[in-house]
Design a protein that fits this description.
Length: 124
């Protein structure tokens, strides 16, 4: 009778561990991308995800008086060096009073400001 109890307890522990591992695996895969039966469906899904990300990024307003380099790089025509130039200008001359003052930063012209105007702010 003791042998039966040992086997049952061991089986119970193994089953519990297996259930725990399966639960973790299912939780990890909960956010996984869906499976597709053909490449066209997968391609359309990826395009829709990219469009959603682009729309979210374009709706985000960037305060040029407080933005980090990463936030500034999200603007059209602003790379890492121009973002650093904006931050340096801001540190040297103080906060921007208007969005149009951004053209005072070397390498940033009126076209860049116009392309990003709806996403720029100077609020403190």
């Amino acid at each position: 009778m003791n042998a039966y109890l040992k086997v049952s307890f061991t089986s119970l522990v193994k089953t519990a561990i297996l259930g725990y591992v399966l639960a973790i695996l299912m939780l990890n895969n909960a956010n996984a991308a869906p499976c597709f039966d053909n490449s066209q469906s997968a391609y359309e899904y990826l395009l829709s995800q990219e469009n959603a990300n682009t729309q979210a990024r374009e709706q985000y307003t960037v305060n040029i008086n407080r933005a980090s380099e990463g936030e500034l790089v999200s603007l059209n025509g602003i790379g890492s060096s121009k973002a650093q130039a904006i931050i340096l200008y801001r540190e040297m001359f103080g906060s921007f009073k208007t969005v149009d003052e951004l053209v005072k930063v070397k390498g940033i012209g009126a076209k860049t400001v116009e392309k990003n105007r709806r996403r720029l702010s100077v609020q403190d």
